[in-house]
Design goal:
The complex is a heterodimer of chains A (157) and B (156).
Chain A: H1 2-14, H2 27-50, H3 54-88, H4 94-123, H5 128-152
Helix pairs in contact in A: 1-2, 1-3, 1-5, 2-3, 2-5, 3-4, 4-5
Chain B: H1 4-13, H2 18-24, H3 30-49, H4 53-87, H5 93-124, H6 127-151
The chains are: A mainly alpha (157), B mainly alpha (156).
């Protein structure tokens, strides 16, 4: 179940992009590769959808790349949490369930804070309509990409 | 442009069979539709949480309290979407900033409410059931968000 959850976590954080993985026998290496590929694909999709001028692209990309780097750190924390969930699944104690809820909600708060702070930073270099557009694109991509993963993670028992 | 009722209709179709949707007057009566969504959501929890009678007696009052507090946030979200729709073709920078601020404020309040009530539920039910509740709520929120975000055009 552990490796399955790692895959789900990758989907949950960055989506179900079609990627061809190297022939690695190491699940962690595979995941790193998958995340890098998905991040690169997502960056291209976002840049295309943003319809920025050259000057705006120059202002947007450093803020976006920092955002993606921070998202990656949060994704790693999510993987760690899901691995704990997998390890405890079927024999989860009340304390473990409480701890998991606490960690999960902290991650959600961190992600929401990251989107908000990124939007603020973008607001300093782009017009507000473009910032709205960025948040809309992120929302669309995140919800579409995460849904299969959210559904696939089994309910606590 | 007006896509609020359409967003709500999509939100509703996640739970309501088409025949019922047509009977409810799909694009005209938003309050009825929201009530229907909430009723179906309740049935979904009843089926999936596997509560004992004792647990049910503790859970449902908290659930109803939570849903009552979520309702004004749903109304604000819909008003914000409608505001975006009305101003879409001539959206100024100030209007865009205000709409984004309101959207983020609603999301923050909604998440805080979910966490607060999940903590309350975890005090009354076994924590695993509270975790299960939070998983279901997240699945539902994600599904609805995908449908709503999917039909709202990007700002220009």
């Amino acid at each position: 179940m552990k490796q399955i959850l790692i895959a789900f976590a990758a989907l949950a954080a960055f989506g179900a992009a079609e990627v061809s993985l190297a022939q690695s026998t190491n699940a962690k290496d595979d995941m790193e590769l998958l995340v890098s590929q998905i991040q690169a694909d997502k960056r291209a999709v976002v840049l295309s959808a943003m319809q920025l001028t050259d000057a705006e692209v120059a202002a947007f990309t450093p803020v976006y790349d920092k955002y993606q780097a921070d998202m990656k750190k949060q994704f790693e924390s999510a993987v760690e949490m899901l691995n704990k969930f997998a390890a405890n699944y079927g024999s989860m104690t009340d304390d473990a369930a409480k701890k998991m809820l606490k960690e999960w909600f902290a991650l959600v708060d961190d992600e929401n804070d990251l989107v908000q702070s990124t939007a603020k930073r973008m607001g300093k270099v782009l017009p507000p309509t473009k910032v709205v557009r960025f948040v809309q694109i992120e929302n669309k991509l995140n919800t579409v990409m995460r849904l299969p993963a959210v559904r696939a993670i089994p309910l606590a028992e | 442009m007006r896509f609020g009722p359409l967003a709500l209709a999509l939100l509703m179709t996640a739970f309501v069979p088409l025949a019922q949707a047509q009977n409810a007057g799909l694009a005209t009566d938003e309050q009825i539709l929201l009530r229907q969504v909430n009723t179906d959501k309740k049935a979904l929890y009843a089926t999936n949480l596997g509560l004992t009678e004792e647990e049910s007696a503790k859970f449902w009052p908290l659930y109803d309290e939570y849903e009552a507090k979520v309702k004004p946030l749903q109304d604000r979200l819909l008003a914000n979407i409608n505001s975006f729709a009305e101003k879409y073709d001539t959206l100024s920078d100030a209007e865009a900033a205000a709409i984004l601020k309101e959207k983020m404020a609603i999301e923050k309040e909604r998440e805080a409410l979910k966490q607060k009530y999940t903590a309350k539920i975890a005090k009354e039910l076994p924590p695993k059931k509270a975790l299960r509740y939070a998983q279901l709520e997240t699945r539902i929120q994600n599904m609805l968000a995908r449908d709503i975000y999917g039909i709202i055009p990007l700002a220009r």
